[in-house]
Amino acid sequence: MTGPVDDAVRVGAGGDAPDVLDQIVAETRDYTPAQCSARLGELAGFTRLSGRQRVEQSLLAERVQTAQRAMAAYQSGNAGMFEQHVPAVVPPGTLPAGHGGWATSAGGDRHVQAHRTAAMRVLDHYRGTGVLDAAAADRADKVLRRGDSQGLTARYLAACGNPEYFTAFGKLVGDPVMGHNRFTPAETAAMQEMTAAHDATRVMGAVGTTSTGFPLPLTVDPSIVITGTGALNPVRDVADVVTIGTHDWVGVTSDSVTAAYVAEGTEAADASPTLVGPKISSQQGRAFVPFTIEAGQDWETLAAQLTKLIADGKNTVDATMFLTGTGTNQPSGILNIGALNGLTTTQRVQTATVATLAAGDSWLLKGAIPARFIGDCTFAASPATWDAVFQLVPAGSTTLAQQFADSDRGGDFLGRPKIEWSTMGTGTTTGTKLIIGGNFKGYKVVDRLAGVTVEVIPHLFSTANARPIGTRGLYAYWRCGAGVISPNHFRYLEVK
């Protein structure tokens, strides 16, 4: 194919990324001309197309044109274009087309490919309608392509993104006892598929074989659509975030391999790195959202509020856990000093003066960061700490080096990006940990597959007289773990 598609399909170099064109060809190979036209009409309704959608649009448009030419040739009696061609013989052991061939392998599981196709359509749809922003869509897309060999995540996303499941879920929220009796056949099928997809992920994760709750629809699930303003929690933007289908994430890390130049004929030195096998367990997070019966009857409005409420609660607790969580029944925080999956005092840099923060202390912190991590270094502190540090060096000072780019409070810090983490410490009390610097890829956030699950509590009762108060409740739970996998990636500034 030539034209605008050529640039769009060049998504990586050296085979690092899947070949988008190969994947779309595999996903749409069974489309009839009518289905191609219907999909083109759907794409035409989006306000903005992603690169992948533009490739699909060009491919489908070419197929429709080919079908039209074929029909015209048939009607005119020109049968030349229908001559059969003998396919080339593929030697045994030849790899399937595409990078990795997961979507184009002739021997691939058609059920898995069908789940992936459906999931990609869901992501395209919600990206095109603005429900998913670019970051959220890219996160889900990355999991589908690189971490979903059995298609479990794809099946889950396709099911929870089904509009019929959204309306069925709303009927259950409005009437937890009898709502299922008002399901349409399509809603019943959607609920059954969602239940099967959810149970499949639980079986693979060895966390039970059945589910008593219902996963949140994609448009409400805060683990997919991340929002919230209760705390500034930028950790997921800079850390290494992965999605797993098991209870634990187990990895292998090493700081480096030692290399050297030697004379000819010299025996090679033993450069074996020291390997560490960090383990991060997913822990259960919970949130409870009460709502009136009247609110439950207006599902469209309630759904928008649920997204904000649950996401805000989850984001706020994560902002604390990712910083100081103990790792026992909660994620391990970066500053879980000397304990499970946290930093140690080896990474500590103290201020030069007791109970004082001076302009030179920031430079001490940067100087302690290993050279290999300076190029990807990010600094993190609370907004109040950044305000205090900014005021240490007057604008236009000729005696102190400027610490913020262009003397701008919102600019980079010491020549590197900075983030604002509202739950970090402030002030100059001895022992306060003010700034973290380093490559945050040394901190791993592990999200358990299957997003947020909720159970509907039909009635809440008064604590005074134990009578119903006209309120229902959503009990939401999810699984997430986190921890430092390479302490040497970081240094932190502590008040002496």
Q: Could you describe the 3D structure shown?
A:
With 496 residues, this protein is an alpha+beta fold. The chain folds into two domains: 5-75 and 109-207, no CATH class; 208-253 and 275-496, phage-related protein like fold (Alpha-Beta Complex). It has 15 helices and 13 strands. The strands form three sheets. Strands 1, 2, 5, 10, 11 and 12 form a six-stranded mixed beta sheet that branches. A five-stranded mixed beta sheet has the order 6-13-9-7-8. Strands 3-4 form a two-stranded antiparallel ribbon. α15 links the parallel β7 and β8 (418-420). α3 (33-44) packs antiparallel against α4, α5 (110-128) packs antiparallel against α6 and α8 (163-174) crosses α9. The longest helix has 26 residues, at 51-76. The radius of gyration is 27 Å and the shape is globular. Residues 1-18, 84-107 and 204-211 have low confidence and may be disordered.
Give keywords:
13 strands; disordered N terminus; five-stranded mixed beta sheet; 37% helix; 15 helices; phage-related protein like fold; 2 domains; 496 residues; globular; six-stranded mixed beta sheet; alpha+beta
Helix-strand blueprint:
Blueprint: H1 5-9, H2 20-28, H3 33-44, H4 51-76, H5 110-128, H6 134-146, H7 152-160, H8 163-174, H9 185-204, E1 214-215, H10 235-238, E2 240-244, E3 248-250, E4 279-281, E5 283-292, H11 293-297, H12 299-324, E6 348-350, H13 359-368, H14 371-374, E7 378-381, H15 383-390, E8 418-420, E9 433-438, E10 443-448, E11 453-457, E12 471-484, E13 490-494
Parallel strand pairs: 2-10, 6-13, 7-8
Antiparallel strand pairs: 1-11, 3-4, 5-12, 7-9, 9-13, 10-12, 11-12
Helix pairs in contact: 2-4, 3-4, 5-6, 5-7, 7-9, 8-9
